[in-house]
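ok so for the tutorial part 2 we go from a plain amino acid sequence to predicted C-alpha cells. step 1 is just haveing the sequence, like this:
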Amino acid sequence: MTRETVVQTLDLGSAHLAYDLTGDVGPLVVQLHGLTSSRERDALLGLDLGRSLRGHRVLRYDARGHGRSSGSSDSGDYRWDRLAADLLALLDHVAPGETVHGVGASMGAGTLLHAAVADPQRFATLTLLTPPTAWGLRAAKAQHYLAGAALIEAEGIAAYEESGSTAPVPPALADAPATGLAVAEELLPTVLRGAAATDFPSPDHVRGIGVPTLVLAWSQDPTHPLRTARRLSELIPRSELVVARTAYGVMAWPGLFAEHVTTAETPAPVTGAITLPPGGGELTVRILDTAELCVAGAAVLGEVWADRSAVAPQLLRALAHSGNYVAGVFDADRVIGASAAFCAEPTARSMHSHITGVLPSYQSRGVGRMLKQHQRDWALERSLEHITWTFDPLVARNAHFNLSVLGARVSEYLVDHYGALADGVNRGEATDRLLVTWPVAVTGQSTPAEADIVATVPLPPDIESLRRTDPAEAAAWRTRVRARFQELYAEGCVVGGFRDGRGYLFVRG
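step 2 — the prediction. this is what the C-alpha cells look like for a chain of 509 residues:
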C-alpha cells in the first residue's frame, strides 16, 4: 500500500519549497535528497529511509530548484549553508521549536552539517548518507561542476547527461533503476555553479557536533568517496560508519537508520537540560536564588563581557529577591551561563532581558537557545505576553537567532543607546542597538514574500573579526547601516525579517 501524501509549499521569498508530511504522531524526521535529485527520485533509488519508521512523522521536501520546488537565479542560493537556512526555515514553519532527527544524502548531508553547526539544539540525531567530496577533495569536483554548467549552456542538457553516462556505477547501485535529473535545464547551470562554490563546515566546526550520528557510505564512487565518510566518522565524537559494498548493503540501510533513530537517547527539553558531547555532562537551567549563586552568575557575565563590573552580584540578588528573572546554566554544580531580566511597568505585561552570557567554551552548542526558552517559559507562567531586549544590529548571527529562530520583531533602532561602554566587547564602539519584542506565544518568524520586500540592509559576515582587523571599515559599516535604517524608517518601512546572505528584509509598515 502506498502512502498518501499531500504536497504543500513554503514561500521563502526567492523560492517555494515543496514538501510533504506523513504520520500523525511521534518524533519528527526530516529527510533531504542529493544534488539534481528529489523526494521522488530518492525513493526510486532506495534512499527513502523514512519509510522504515513506525510511530514517527516524516517530513520530506525538495530543495530549492529541485523536484517540485522553484528556484532562484543566484548561484549562491545553492551553497549548502544557504540550503541549511532553507531547511531551518522549513522546520520553524512545520515544527517550531521541536527537536528533530535529520537524514540526508550527498548534498543533503552537507546541508544537514551546516544546519547542525548553525543550530545545534535543533537535532536529536543525524544520519549522513553517501557524503560527497569535501575539504581537500572539493576543488577538483568544483571544476567538474563548472565545466558541466558551461556544457549545458553551450550544447544542452542531453550533452551533459551523455557526458556522465560513461561514469562507473558503484556496486551498491548496480540494480538501481535509471532516473533522470530532477532540475530544469534552464536552472541546472546555476545549481551546478552553486555546488561548485560550496563545502562542508570546517573540521573544527564538525568536531563540535555532539548528537549521535550515523554515516552510511558505499564503495567505489569517486563522487562520494569513502575518504570523506571516514573523516566525518573520525571528527564527530558520537558517530558510527557503515559501508555498503553491494546492493544488499544498501538494502540494510532503512533498518540501520530506524535502529539509530529509535535507540538514540531522547534529548531533554530545552527548558530543562541538554547533553554535551563526550567529556561534558548534562546542562540544566535553574533560578539563581542565593547570594552565592548570584556571585557565580555575575562572575560568568564579567568573563563573557571582559568586564568584572558588567553586573554586580548584589544587583542580581536584588532583582531575584524582588521577583524578577535571574537564572543560570549549570554544568553539574558550576555556573557556565547566566541571564537577568526585569519586569516592565505592570500594564505592559512584559519584561526586559538586560544581559545574557555563556562562557566561550560552551558557546555554539545551543545553550543560548536553551536560556531563551527557559526565559520564555518563566514569562508564560506569570502571564507575561512579551520579552524585550537589545542587540547590536551589525552582528549577523544574533540577527539570525533573534529574528529567524526565535521570531522576535524589531521595534526600534536606538542610536548609541548605552553611550560609551568600557567593557572588552564594546570599548571604543558606538552602542547602536535594535530593540526587539518577542511575543512569547510565538516561535519562529515567517520570512516575508519576495514581492513584499522593498529593500534589504546587508551586514558584514563577521563584524567582530572585522573590528579587530580593520576598525575603520567596521566603523564605516556602523555608519552605513544606521543611515539606511533611518532612511527606510522615514519612508514608513519596517523590518519584516532577516535572511543570511541578504541581511535585514524591509517591508511597508
